[in-house]
Fold this protein.
Amino acid sequence: MGEPAKVRHVGGYGPFIEFCTGHGVSAEEVASDPERLISFLRTFGSQFENDSNAAAAVFAGNAIARLRPDAQWTAYEGGSPTVGNRQRQFDVDRLLVAVRAADEESLRGFVSALLDWAREEVDESPAMRPVPVSPAAGQPRYVRPDLPATTYYAPAGEPIAYGRQWGVEGPDPDSYSVDSHPERFAGLHIVARALIGYLATAYDVEVHEDPVHARDLLIEVRDVLHAVRVTPRGSGAAPLTFVLTGYPGVVVHAGVLHDFPFPVCGCDACDETAETTADRMERLVLSVAAGGYAERYPVGSRRWSEYALSAFDGSGSESGSGEPGPVAPARLHEAEIRLREVDGPWRPWPLRGS
């Protein structure tokens, strides 16, 4: 299967061209000048009808895509289309609303940021696409252990339906930054131990438990209970470190420069459960072992770090990039050398007995 074609220009903006013409404005001049584009959208946005509003969003997205050779349109099922590159994406539907609501200072700041983005160095290096291997014949299968089933209650006494608390209107504004029952994530420690046990059974690895391994993490973690490093005995295979915290939660360090916390956020608004969080942790760990994980550093002029993950079961993929954070220069240098040696995605872990 070949790479999907890049979409840099989308049709359907005819009504916006007509709107510009009706107001004596050259659509081409608007498209070629980001400051003029944003000013025009702000001035006339309230006059757009449904058709011209949708056309204006497409027109604005095409204009943004023209600013950089690596920009393209992206559409996700159930979400609004965006336009941008790997480092920055713009939701053009929300952009039109934000432009009309913003004050002059915010608008100038956005135009400045847009122009800075357009002038950034283009990273021509291709995106990583790790391909996990299929399970071998006779390879043991991971089975999640049973997790505690507990009902949690709100202060008024009614049970809390974690995972399905909020309807179409979204979370209660008062639920952000409130962790009413973090103990619901205690089962993640059980899952982490089960994953470590499975890796030791299925793969040729070294398992070492020592609190000192918590230093593998790049992010700061408090209240470390246990730290377990699992190192595959295979050239170019990514190690994993499991850090169990008193929150309770688990942080998994994969490879050399990326940490993955579970849960990412346990507040009531995010409405996570131990089961959904365990799904993500198992997906990460099993995909890394299958060779579905890749890292790069440094990327582009900003020297960002980047990861890509392809699910072991073909259920999807994810990626991320950004500044590696407050990491000692020596550690970054070691990571750069290590990833240069790997020269591509991390390798699948060797099976036990192979």
